[in-house]
Structures are given as structure tokens and as C-alpha cells.
## 1
Amino acid sequence: MQPISRRSALLLGGLGLAGTAAGAAGLVWTLTSRGAPVTGAELTHPAELRSTGGRLALELEAARGPLHLAGRAATALGYNGASPGPTLRLRGGDVLGIRLTNRLAEPTNLHVHGLHVSPRGNGDNVFVRVDPGGSFDYEYRLPADHPPGVYWYHPHHHGMVAAQVFGGLFGAIVVEDTDPIPVAADRVLVVSDTDLDAAGNVRNVAPAERLAGREGTIVLVNGQSNPVLSAYPGQRERWRMVNACVARYLRLRLDGQGMQLLGMDSGHFQSPAAVDEVLLAPGNRADLLITTAAGQSVLRAAYYDRGSMPGMMGNGSPERGPADQPQGVSLATLQVAGKPAGRPAGLPPRPAPADLRQVSVAAHRQFLLAAGMGQGGMGGGGGTGMASFTINGREFDPGRTDTTVTTGTVEEWTVVNTSPMDHPFHLHVWPMQVISVNGVAPAFPAWQDVVNVPANGQVNVRIAFRDFTGRAAYHCHILDHEDLGMMGAIEVR
Ligand code: C2O
Ligand code: CU
Ligand code: CU
């Protein structure tokens, strides 16, 4: 039984039910289970675990069970009984040890998205399978010069990734700066979406939604629905935003307050860029500096058209469509009030990011992302029987290596999207420098581990295959597409 939160008690009071509820915990359970998401609670953060003396060791238990989501009792998936799981705070040079225990009824495993660590053995090896009841000891050794930033962890067992993430399995990882920026608050905001039925269970998803990539109608920040953040005017905060949605793009806006982008994924800019909005494809992170002005602002995800397959309604999710377009989705509300904060201290100098634009390239490769529709019976299609999601014409096969690269070289990859919907392209272990998107070069070196490839568009990236050898993966980070086959295996040797 979940404890009754003060918020629920207040709500019940407001409904004139407090007297009844006080003597009947079962009634409270029923009411909070069936209700709409509870909005407006003060933002909370997942538990934080910090490395000490160069090491962080923890256990993560993946299980289905009662947890608190959107302010109500739900039966969903969590790590150690919560969604998001604990936030892991590390430093370059640390060793991260995780014992993963699988209490689910199906296989799972663990991936540390974006970390530059070895993919071999018990490192960031997505070919590991942990069966129900089993455990696996992962060990990740971060190089001393590991880029600071926000990363995340989630399951990666092929075919089950979308459902397990949609169910609630994910958490954040922060690699701390060596020279931190002075801020009044350093917040990790993990954005996810899901759907709960009347009984509080995560709903099942129809095959057609998997083709588009499932989107939930409940959009959560740290597991809460539209929480409130309070700050003083003139306060500087750091918001590390993670897009943990299976398929939803987040075109983030915070109108009325100052927003600067420090970098995306593991990348950082030399000086922060003032922005009105930031587009986070699934898997992307944004490292933001917020300088509050005054009044109340809604952090929202404005409407973004990521395309759709022919013959498919919108993105296959009920809330998308014209009604969704003007305002988008509210993620959180920032309330700025009180005595103005003192002027924030200056930013410590930031090193220039690496730049591969002038280096010599050992190989050029092309990757064709294709979503084929209406060719019944073609390919595995992950059981959908009507579509195939491929890279270079092939669905993922864990036993096949699609791309072999020589360690220590730099390659240029052209990723071409032949379909009428966007696909966010992700590579494990080695970050990508964006060279161009539809022929347009970014203004300064941009390093990302998820790069959106627009519908019928193309992206060029350069990658330095340094530090590690071994087998890893690249794939579309619309996790349904990954599960349906839009993934390849890479071996660096
Ligand atoms: Cu975030 Cu291969 O995944
Ligand atoms: Cu990843
Ligand atoms: Cu895709």
C-alpha cells in the first residue's frame, strides 16, 4: 500500500470526502487509482546515489509493482520500486558497478545510454540477456576525461525495449563537471510518457501504434504530471532534461524566462547559446541554464510534426492532431516569486569542443533507414505482419555484424531517411559530431549521440572510434522501430 500523500489528502478534503477516507485506507486507494493524474504538486527528484572514492556500487531490481505515477497509484515497471529509478552521480575516472536483478516475467538487460565506456563483457554490452529471476553484474569504467553531462540508463533486450521503457524502466546518470557552474539548483528532469487504464495498469499498445512509435497521453516529469517548480526572480538554475519517451519528440519552450543551451547529450558548447526552444528527439538530453525573470511560465513541449506513414492517422496516438498544435503539452509550471536573487556569479571558462571537420577520414559509409509498408508477409516485422523497419535493407540480427570499423580511425557516416517520418539515429559508445543536416552545417561543433534524421532527409556525422574495441549497436531511438528491426550491430577492432 502506498502512503497517502498530503496532496491526495488535500484533494479528498476538497471533495468533501476526508471524513470517509480517514477511516478507510482502501477507499483512498480506490479513489487515487481511478482518478485523473494529480497535477500541481511540488516537483520531486528521484533518489540520488553519488560515487565516493572513485566508485559507485548499487543494485537495481527491475520489477512490476505498485508505484506512484502521475500522483496516483499505478501498477507499472520500476527500478527499486520507483520510476524513474535512482539518479547516479559520477565523475570521470569512476568505476560504476551495477548488479541488475530481473524480477520481471520476461528477459531484460541494461544499457548506459551515451556513456563512453567499453561495450565488451560485463561493460555496456547490449547482447547480454538477463532472464527472469536472474542477476548480472555490470561494471562500467569511465575514462578520466569522460565528458561531463547527463546520460541515462534503460533496458535494451531486443524486441522488448519499447514496452519496458513505456512501462517505466529508466533513470538518469550525471557525470559531474570538474569546474561546476554556480547555480541555485541543479535539477534532473526526466520526461517520459505512458498511459494508465482505470485500474492504474500501463495499457497495452496496438500494432498500428508501434509502427508510428507509441506515445502516451500522460506526459511525466520525474514521474509527476505537471509539477510545480518555485524560484526567486533572477535565480540561475541548471536543468538537465532527458527525453525518455519511446517516440515522443519534445520541442521544449519556457516562454517568459531566460533559457540557454549548454549542450546536447555528451556535447557542450564553448559558450552557452540563448535559445527560445530546444528539440529533443527520443533519447536526447539538453543541458540548460535557466535564468528566471518573473511570473509564471509553463515548460511545454510545443507541437512538432514528425511525419507519419502513408495511410496512418497522425502519429497513431489519440491526442495528436490539430487540437494539440497551438499549445502542445504542459510538462511543468515554473513559479517565480519573492525577493530577487543576487546577480549570479560568472561562468567558469569552458574548453572548446573537439572538432573533426578538418581531420582525415578513413572511411565513408552510408546507412539507409527505411520503413516499408503494405508488403504483407515481408520480413519479420516483429509480428506486425505489415511493415518492415530496416537499415540498409536488413532487419536487426544479433548474430550478424553489419559494420566493421578499425579502432583509432575517424569515419564519416551519411544517414539517409527514405521514409516520410523522422527517425532519431543513435550510436552506442562513440559520440557523433554533426557535420550537416539536409546539407546545412551547424554554426559550431555539435556532438550528440542521437541525431534526428528528418523525413526524406539526410544527416552527415563524423565519429572518432577511439578508446574501445568490441561490439555495440546503432539504431533508431523510436524504440518501437528499434524493436521492429531498425538496428545494426557494429564491431570495432
Ligand atoms: Cu538509449 Cu541503444 O539506446
Ligand atoms: Cu544508447
Ligand atoms: Cu524510427
## 2
Amino acid sequence: MALPSDTDLHAAGLAVDLTGPTLTLTLDKPDRRNSQTPRLWHTLAAIGEGLPEEVRVVVVRGAGACFSAGIDTRLLGPEGIEGESSVFELMHGSDDEVLETIDGYQRGFVWLSDPRFVSIAAVHSHAIGAGFQLALACDLRVVADDVAFCMKEPALGLVPDLAGTKALVDLVGYSRALEICATARYVGADEARELGIATAVVPRAELDEATSDLVEALLASNAGAVRETQSLLQGAGRRDLEEQRLAERQAQLRRFRELVGGA
Ligand code: CAA
């Protein structure tokens, strides 16, 4: 499968740049603070499906004043947006329709943890609701010192349902995750670093450079070894020690075979 066309990307509020093994995906609707819609989520999923084999790093960033203000709030009310499916209407759908539709939305997020590549969210200013969840979908988060994460959904009568609850609990633990979600408060840069949400915190003016440096460092490592290590680490939480040791041995065997085979 190929990447979506420029026309489809533009209609979804996205811009994509593919330079060598790095795909940069920009949320590109700054006038609306990069708010998100079902069309954007479906297009994200299509990018995941059409990702060229050679891509080793995916960077997700936001154009303009902030990373993302979350769902386009017009979709939560009766007015909706022309050409977009409305969450307000979905609320009145059948059980199967609701479950299936949200599954489709979630697919726009979950591909970002595919161990074929490393994903980095470069986050500045607000990352609210779906914006926070998009940042959480990435493997790493480089954040600017003005970052403001917020899981706003419970304040709006909803739950975070774009696959962000698992990543948040994995990063900060159950109690802190509950407190952050249930109060819908803002988490700033220092706390994000302390909690492990931010992989690095840098001055806002240095966000692009810091992200590029990280991309360069990742690309300098052996591609196959990074992929295998990523799979090992991703699965470590659900394996016991014996299973993890076995997974390490099997991964190393594959590395040996590839290194010797390629010699
Ligand atoms: N949806 C649609 N439009 C939005 C938007 C959103 N989420 N956030 C901002 N905008 C629009 C504003 O309406 C405004 O448009 P106009 O210029 O036409 O008036 C423009 O973007 C600029 O907005 P602000 O003037 O408010 O910009 P700011 O920089 O002062 O503040 C902000 C930025 C803190 C993100 C603020 O806009 C804000 O709080 N937005 C709403 C955030 C929100 O509640 N999002 C929903 C989260 S829940 C979710 O995402 C998950 C879910 O499924 C429910």
C-alpha cells in the first residue's frame, strides 16, 4: 500500500515529509490548534498501513501555536462539521456501530508503536485529550519547556478511548494516571520529565534541533538490533523472567544469524 495522496493528507489536516528513513508527520491545522477529527484518525491509520519498508523513525509534530488541542470540539455538539462523521451522532448509534467506529479511530494511534520503527512525538505547548493520547502513542516524547498535557475527556463526560490509557499507566503507574485523568489537570514539562512522560525537555526554540539530534542518534544504531530490542522491551512487562530470558536468547540468535549471514 502507498501513503495517502497529498490531497487526502491536506483534507485531513496533515502534512507528511519522507526523507530517507525518516517520516515526519505534521498536524497541520494551526488555525484550529491542530484539533483532530475522524478523517484525521483514518488518514493516520492509512499512513501506518502504507508506511514504506525503509522507514526507521516516525516523528509526529504540530504546526503553529501548539501540538494539538484534541478532538475538534464541534464534533461533540449537534452542529458537527460538514464531511466529517460526528461524535454527537455516534452517541446515538447502535452498540456495534459505536464499538466498531471507535476501533477504527484507535487504529490511527496504535500503529505508532509498531517495532518496525521508533516513533517520536515532538510536543510543544498544549497536548489536550486526543493530542495527549497521540503523544502517548509514540515510543518517545521530546517536549518543549512550555508543554501542557491534559487528559480532558473525563471533564467532558467521556473516557480517554484512543488507546492512551494503557500507555499512560505503563509510564506513570495506576494511581498517578487516575489522578491525572480524573482531575483533567495540566501536567507541565518538569512533572512530565519526573513522571517519565517526557523522554527529554528542551527550550521551545530548541525542540526541532533536539528532535533531529535524537533521530540522528537512533539512525546511527544498527536497524535490526534496534527493532529486536524494541520488541524485547515492549513485551517485557507481560513476560515473566524465564519468558523474557528466552525472548532475549531467541532475539540474539536471530541477530547472530543475520550478522553472520550478512558477513
Ligand atoms: N476544536 C476546534 N477548534 C478549536 C479547538 C478544538 N479542540 N481548540 C481551539 N480551537 C480553535 C478556537 O475555536 C479558535 O478558533 P477561532 O480563531 O475561529 O476563534 C482557535 O482554535 C484558537 O483557539 P484559542 O483562541 O482558544 O487558542 P489559545 O492558544 O488561546 O488556546 C487551547 C489553545 C488551550 C488549546 C484552547 O483552544 C482550548 O482549550 N481548546 C479546547 C481544548 C479541548 O477541550 N479539547 C477537547 C479535548 S477532549 C478530546 O480530545 C478527546 C475526546 O475524544 C473527547
